[in-house]
């Protein structure tokens, strides 16, 4: 099987080269070459899928002839985690990168098979170049081939790192990689647009969905990683400003800016240079995250450590940045737009400020992340910046982002009058004022100014978003009748992108409320308690009831039973513990080896809407370790058959001597040794249950931290709504041509203007001017479509005959 997998991987590499070559042969309009290149991409997806299946089958069947399986799994590894073990390794994660990109490339090329004829060949070549890079790494770079093998195969593997044996790890890495990889699609089409000078919004309309999918996947990965940190690492936090965490956050921030900025180009034909630069930056940051995990240049709990592929990935980043920058600079004249922002009080101006803030936050995080390397370069000393530095400079930017999250939805495109602005802002400002007064009067939020400001701005934003839903539903009800809930569902269904985005904004505001509250008002105490003793933490009486022990073949677990009482509530029992894992894959180990290998903290957590009570324990194992040392010495004397040793020891010693002479007896001897050592370990560990020694507890009260996870769910629900296909697409009538896309985009812009007018954002005078302008542009589009149809007959550029185009133009003018 390793040989088959290696052959398929080599064939996949060759296929990427062929697909890129065929696409470039068709760059001048020869459709047959472009079609063949697309078919080659489909073949690539099939080849890499088989490669992934071979690896997963090897993990599930404990095929330790694969070095990848032997190094990251064992017979004892639970089946659930064997399925996820592939991406816990460097080799497997590179294969995952290439496989996901083959999926994204195949989907993108299928979606654009009848569109963007000039751009698609170049985009195909770029995507295949990236896949060729990663498949080439696996084939030619040392120590990263997932199909490398060993013969004879070991009897057992090393096992999966216990820290990775968490449900989030089944989903967290694939989500991150899917986010990184999916940004390749809009990047590739942007490069194609720059090369061909097709710099209108069509490439954006064709790849916006992929950008949103990438943003969503990357966001899910970030949240799952934060949840894993909160429940598994035993320090009580969810974000440590770790270099690899930061490397995943930076492309998400730039991707957020890109998704907002492209709306301005779609609506107004502006910010073209911004959009090209943002997607290049986003993709480069995605590659940077891949580099940091594999380079070892910065210390991180998430990194694979020293690696042979880091320099190659750094070279790819350099090629992407230098090549893309040169291309953008050479196209600056084409990227300039004759249109300008009509008013600072407009949605596009808020989006521009949003770009500046998000890029500024990314720059701050980049500087803090790479400061150790920067300081070492200039001073020779590697100095790092801790979490307080990041908090100091990112907090003001995050607060302003919350404010503009609320302002943006209240403004119309192009312009808004003072009278309309007063109507739009009255309710959100009133809600913000009420939030401020209530917080100052009934809480100690005034002692944390930044948190107070964020809460007020979040109240403003949530009120503004709620007002948007109310106004939209009310306008729909006035036009069509029916109930208010039915009108709300109808207006959201008809304007999924708009209202899905509003829901995302609401989720982000809620998430940031949770971050501000839990970081600013957290109670964090380390206490030492003996069984039966109590302490009070933030009004809660915490009692150490008794120590607990659990032993398995894989680990020894020492914990505590805590009883928590709060006035007016029922007592809560929490059971924090710490697990010490036995080494795997190296035969029987001594009892003391449990305390020399990996350990994990299993937290005791009581989650609630108001606050979380989080507990972790550091057990006092001095006596247990002393007994395990004595048992180790006794076991060695037993095996040697020292004077006075029991008959069982003499029998075991004789078995080991026979196994040394006859290798076929070795498995039975090792199994007997492992059984005796496991029994001894269980007996010694069991003595901890009667321990009266003090244990050290970390007890944290985190206000509103649950709303981080709730806010994330709200945001991802909004993203799903925005991604959900329109009714026509679900019925099998997709937008098949560029003409269709142009018409659909302009009709959507007309509907948005009508909705803004009905909701009171546009005065009658402003709406009349804007509506006339939009309808004139729509007629121009239809005239261009008619001209193409007349020139090409029933060719690819058109979507019907000229009469149809004239009919639609008349319909637009009359409506």
Report low-confidence residues grouped into runs of 5 or more: 730-735, 792-815
Q: What structural category do the secondary elements indicate?
A: alpha+beta
What is the share of helical residues? 55-70%
Overall geometry: globular
The value of Rg in angstroms is 31 Å
| Tally of separate helices | 27
Strand fraction band?
5-15%
Based on DSSP secondary structure assignment, what is the total number of beta strands?
10
Whole-number mean pLDDT:
84
Strand count, sense and closure of the main sheet? 6 strands, antiparallel
Q: Terminal Cα separation, in Å? A: 66 Å
Summarize the structure in short:
This protein is an alpha+beta fold. It contains 27 helices and 10 strands.
Topology record:
Layout: H1 2-25, H2 31-60, H3 67-72, H4 79-84, H5 90-111, H6 120-140, H7 168-182, H8 184-196, H9 202-232, H10 243-268, H11 272-295, H12 310-330, H13 332-335, H14 347-379, H15 387-410, H16 418-442, H17 449-480, H18 484-494, H19 496-520, E1 523-529, E2 534-537, E3 540-551, E4 555-566, E5 572-574, E6 577-581, E7 599-602, E8 604-606, E9 611-618, H20 622-640, H21 647-661, H22 666-686, E10 695-703, H23 706-723, H24 727-730, H25 738-758, H26 764-792, H27 802-814
Antiparallel strand pairs: 1-10, 2-3, 3-4, 4-5, 4-6, 6-7, 8-9, 9-10
Helix pairs in contact: 1-2, 1-6, 2-5, 2-6, 5-6, 5-7, 6-8, 7-9, 8-9, 8-11, 9-10, 9-23, 10-11, 10-14, 11-12, 14-15, 15-17, 15-19, 16-17, 17-18, 17-19, 18-19, 19-23, 20-21, 20-22, 21-22, 25-26, 26-27
């Amino acid at each position: 099987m390793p040989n088959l997998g290696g052959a398929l991987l080599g064939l996949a590499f060759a296929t990427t080269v062929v697909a890129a070559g065929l696409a470039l042969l068709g760059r001048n309009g020869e459709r047959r070459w472009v079609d063949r290149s697309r078919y080659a991409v489909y073949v690539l997806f099939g080849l890499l899928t088989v490669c992934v299946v071979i690896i997963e089958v090897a993990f599930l069947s404990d095929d330790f002839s694969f070095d990848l399986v032997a190094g990251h799994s064992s017979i004892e590894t639970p089946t659930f985690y064997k399925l996820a073990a592939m991406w816990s390794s460097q080799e497997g994660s590179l294969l995952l990168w290439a496989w996901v990109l083959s999926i994204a490339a195949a989907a993108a090329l299928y979606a654009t098979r009848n569109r963007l004829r000039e751009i698609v060949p170049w985009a195909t070549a770029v995507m295949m170049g990236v896949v060729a890079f990663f498949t080439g790494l696996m084939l030619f770079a040392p120590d990263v081939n997932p199909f490398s093998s060993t013969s004879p195969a070991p009897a057992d593997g090393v096992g999966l790192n216990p820290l990775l044996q968490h449900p989030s790890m089944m989903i967290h890495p694939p989500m991150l990689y899917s986010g990184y990889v999916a940004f390749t699609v809009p990047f590739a089409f942007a490069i194609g647009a720059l090369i061909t000078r097709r710099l209108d919004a069509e490439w954006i309309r064709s790849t916006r969905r992929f950008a949103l999918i990438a943003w969503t996947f990357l966001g899910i990965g970030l949240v799952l990683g934060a949840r894993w940190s909160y429940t598994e690492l035993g320090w009580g936090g969810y974000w440590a400003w770790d270099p690899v965490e930061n490397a995943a956050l930076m492309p998400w921030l730039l991707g957020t800016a890109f998704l907002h900025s492209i709306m301005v180009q779609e609506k107004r034909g502006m910010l073209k240079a911004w959009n090209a630069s943002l997607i290049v930056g986003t993709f480069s940051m995605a590659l940077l995250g891949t580099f940091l995990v594999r380079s070892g240049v910065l210390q991180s709990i998430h990194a694979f450590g020293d690696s042979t592929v880091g320099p190659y990935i750094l070279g790819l980043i350099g090629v992407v940045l230098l090549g893309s920058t040169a291309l953008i600079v050479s196209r600056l004249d084409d990227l300039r737009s004759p249109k300008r922002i009509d008013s600072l009080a407009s949605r596009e101006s808020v989006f521009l400020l949003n770009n500046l803030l998000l890029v500024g936050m990314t720059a701050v995080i980049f500087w803090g992340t790479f400061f150790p390397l920067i300081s070492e370069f200039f001073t020779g000393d590697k100095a790092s910046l801790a979490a307080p530095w990041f908090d100091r400079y990112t907090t003001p930017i995050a607060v302003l982002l919350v404010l503009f999250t609320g302002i943006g939805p209240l403004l119309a495109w192009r312009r808004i009058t003072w009278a309309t602005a007063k109507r739009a802002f009255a309710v959100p400002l009133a809600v913000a004022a009420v939030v401020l007064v209530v917080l100052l009067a009934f809480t100690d939020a005034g002692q944390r100014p930044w948190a107070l400001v964020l809460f007020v701005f979040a109240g403003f934003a949530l009120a503004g978003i709620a007002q948007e839903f109310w106004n939209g539903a009310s306008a729909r009800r006035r036009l069509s009748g029916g109930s208010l809930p039915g009108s709300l569902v109808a207006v959201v269904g008809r304007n999924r992108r708009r209202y899905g985005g509003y829901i995302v904004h609401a989720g982000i505001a809620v998430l940031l409320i949770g971050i501000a509250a839990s970081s600013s008002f957290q109670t964090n105490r380390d206490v030492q308690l003996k069984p039966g003793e109590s302490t009070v933490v933030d009004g809660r009486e915490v009692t150490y009831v008794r120590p607990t022990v659990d032993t398995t073949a894989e680990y020894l677990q020492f914990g505590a039973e805590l009883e928590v009482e709060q006035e007016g509530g029922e007592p809560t029992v929490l059971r924090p513990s710490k697990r010490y894992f036995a080494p795997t894959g190296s035969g029987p180990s001594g009892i003391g080896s449990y305390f020399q290998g990996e350990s994990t903290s299993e937290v005791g957590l009581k989650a609630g809407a108001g606050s979380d009570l989080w507990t972790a324990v550091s057990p006092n194992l001095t006596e247990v370790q002393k007994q395990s040392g004595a048992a180790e010495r006794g076991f060695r004397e037993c095996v040697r058959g020292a004077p006075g040793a029991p008959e069982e020891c003499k029998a075991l010693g004789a078995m080991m001597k026979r196994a040394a002479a006859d290798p076929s007896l070795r498995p039975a001897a090792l199994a007997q040794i492992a059984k005796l050592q496991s029994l001894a370990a269980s007996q010694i560990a069991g003595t901890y249950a009667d321990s009266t020694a003090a244990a050290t507890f970390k007890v944290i009260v985190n206000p509103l931290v649950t709303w981080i996870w709730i806010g994330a769910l709200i945001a991802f629900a909004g993203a799903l709504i925005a991604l959900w296909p329109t009714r026509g697409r679900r019925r099998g009538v997709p937008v098949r041509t560029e003409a269709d896309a142009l018409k659909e985009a302009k009709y959507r812009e007309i509907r948005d203007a009508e909705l803004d007018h009905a909701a009171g954002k546009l005065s009658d005078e402003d709406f009349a001017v804007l509506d006339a302008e939009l309808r004139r542009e729509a007629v121009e589009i239809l005239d261009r479509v008619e001209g193409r149809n007349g020139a090409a007959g029933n060719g690819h550029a058109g979507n019907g005959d000229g009469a149809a185009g004239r009919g639609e133009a008349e319909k637009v003018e009359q409506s």
